[in-house]
Amino acid sequence: MLTQREIVSTLEMLKNENLDVRTVTLGVSLLDCAGSDLTQVRQRVADRICRLAGELVPVCERIGQKYGIPVVNKRVAVSPIGVVAAALEPAEMVELAHTLDAVAREINVDFIGGFSALVEKGLARGDRSLIAAIPEALATTERLCASVNVASTRAGINMDAVLLMGQTIKRAAELTADRDGAACTKLCVFANIPEDIPFMAGAYLGIGEADAVINVGVSGPGVVKKAIDRALAANPGMDLGDISELIKRTAYKVTRVGELIGREVAQQLQIRFGVVDLSLAPTPNVGDSVGEIFQSLGLLAIGVPGTTAALALLNDAIKKGGAFASARVGGLSGAFIPVSEDLNISEAARNKHLCIEKLEAMTSVCSVGLDMVAIPGDTSAETISAIMADEMAIGVINNKTTATRLIPVPGKKAGDHAVFGGLMGHSTIIPVNNAAGDNPFIRRGGLIPAPIHSLRN
Fold it and tell me: pTM, whole model, 2 decimals?
């Protein structure tokens, strides 16, 4: 139970600090919907999702109103479609994508994730079909999200898949050139993808998960910033150890709120409760920025020297506080740095405080990686693949999750502005070294072997 002091503190968070439950995501297993007949697969998939998720939005809204805590996004994540629809051709995969999108509209969820493939060790037929379908599927749907895991610490990096994903991203951008390559905003490429992510675009229901599960994503960058500002105003001499403790305690309270909402949603839907993912996930709204936390810590802007150390402190404190508050912390849990989705980070990119190389360095300590990064439209597929390969290497060697959401904006160059709309925000396009150049290294393909520390049993 919350103490009286915790209740007062939480009420203050709700009133002035943008505290919310960022997402309640219902995971739905579709494994027994598999088949080779497209019509039957589409019908089984639609029926299953509607039956389990039909009441998700009304239940979340009722519980949010009951506690005065808004549930901002209601989402569904399904089993990897590369497995469920393994017998289908790429064109049939696109039709299944349209079914998923239509179901998402019918039950009124914001996004549906799981148009996904797990190819860290090799590409099966269904994986190839799904990846071939991704550009058209994302270009012709509104609420569908896709993810592909191309590397893991156990398996290494599948460079054939990395090259294929570079080509896929280029094609997806071209098909939505009139929207600044918006299809790419709904596509994540991962190393070490968790099976229980509630945040899009990476969300899917892992093979080892139950038939249905509720996972909650709690954000709160505004809460953390205000807590730091108040503490430093009262005690300007606080050192970084003291600030870490403060962030940890704040994360604890935010996680308790998320678990309260998640467990009640699960109880009312009669579905198993999964995890709380405590990730500082910003939005384009003023006061809801991860970048502003770095300024509260004393940095000129995110991206200047000291940023990686500050992010390491922030990420670790969030994980410690969240882990203490809940028996089931999972997903990504840490700090996101999505460039276009955070006004402050986008501004740092515009002012050239933040470059792609610094973002890559920050990946070694953050939750995800090169997230929502707009790059020049003439960046070649090989260069995109090379950027992804570097990111995957950080994840594989450090035994952590890393990912990319790269958006090559057709017809635009470094310094131009790209607008993706809504939650996806907007950003200055960041220059890329040797953007349109040749890269024989990437074309060699094959598997970069797993590091020796992967042999742990």
Answer: 0.91
